[in-house]
Model the fold of this input.
Amino acid sequence: MTTPLVSVIVPIYRIENYLPKCIDSLLNQSFLNFELILVDDGSPDNCPDICDAYAKKDSRVKVIHKENGGLLSARKAGLKNAKGKYVSYVDGDDWVDRYYLDVLFKLAEANAADLVVTGHFREFDGKIETIKPKYTGIFDETEIQSSILPKVIYNGRFCEHEISTYVWNKLFRRDLLLEVLFDVPNEIIMGEDAAITYAYLALSKKLTISKIPLYYYRQRHDSIVKSIENPTMEYYRLGLLMNFLKLNLGKVLDEKNLNRQLLYYLYSQILVRSGGMIYDSSEKVLFNPFLNVEQNAKVVVYSSGSFGQHLLSTNAKTNFFQIVRWIDVDHHELNVNGNFVKPLSSIDNEEFDSLIIATINPTSYESIKAELALMGIDEKKIIEINTDEKQIKRLLVHLGFQDDFSYLLNKTEEQSN
Done:
C-alpha cells in the first residue's frame, strides 16, 4: 500500500449507536488515498468489535485498542500511528460529506496551507443548521500574527472566537501537529480542542478558510450533563488550559492582548460549567453574572444546551431563582430536576420577571432575542451577562486563579482527586 496522503483519526468511546454511520461516511469518500485510524479508548460497549469488523473488510482501516485515557490521549495515540502528510480528526458520533477529504486536501495543496478551516452542519433532533466562518481567504504568517491571532479567542464581543475551536472542521499538517499535540496535558478535558487549534495556529505560516460545509456535527441531547461536584478540580483543569494557551500564544502575541483574550475565555468557560451563578463552598453567592436579576425573581431560561442544563442543575441546589419555564426553539424530551423543555410559544410576559438566554455567543444571543421579540416578548426583560473586565478580574482572583491563569491545588485536594 502506498503512503496515505491523509490520516483520519477517530477517537471512540461509548458511541456504538452512532459509530457505523461515521465509519461508513469515511469509507465512502470520493478521495481514496487515506488511512482511517480508529482509536478504541477502552470503550466498554460494542465499539471495539465494530472497529475490528471494519478493519477486516477494508485495508485502509487501522484499529488501536487502548486503556481508557480520555479524548486527548486517544488523539495522541492516533497521531503516533499516523502516516499521512495531513491529519483530520472526526468524532465517532458525527459523520462527513462524501467530498469531505477531497475538498480539505485540495484547499491545503492549492494554497500550501498549514491549516485549513471549513464550515460545518449542526444536526440536532433531525434538524440541520449550516454554520459557516464569517470570512474566507488565504492568510500568510504576517496576517495570522497581526490580524487573526489578536482576535482568535476573543474578538471584542463576549465571547466570540475569530476562528472556531473545533479540531473536526480542520485539516492539519502532521509534522506541525506533532510539535503541538504531545505538549497538551491529558488532564485538560474541557477546551482541549482550543488548546490544539490555537497552539497549532501560532506555529502556522499559511491559513486557508473556506465556507464550504463538509462535516456533520451531531448535537446529542442524550449526553448526561453533570453539575460541578468539585469546583476546585474544574478550575484546576481550566487553569491548565489557560496556562497552556498563555505559554504557546505568548510567543506571538502582545501580553496585554493575550491576557484580555484569556480573561474572557476563562470567564465564559466558568459560566457555562457553573450554570452562571458562582457559589462558595457554603453555597453563598459569590457572583451573579445575570444583570438586574434579583434573588427569587421569576425566570424563564432559554436554551436546552450545556449552559442551560447547568443553569437548571445549579439552581435546583440553591433555589436562587424561581424558574417558571424552560424553553428552546429545539424543544424535545429532556428533563432536568423536574423542568421540561417547552416551545417558545409557551410563555407570556405576565408570568416572568426576567428571561435568561443561556449562551455566551453574542451572535446567537442577538438572533434569539430578535426571534423572541417577534413573538411579543418584552425585550426589557431579556437580560444581559455581566462583562465588566474589572469585576471579572476580581472574581478570578477571588476564586484562586494566578496571574498566569493557572489554578493551584493544595495537597489535600490533589489526594482527594
In short: The radius of gyration is 22 Å. The mean pLDDT is 92.
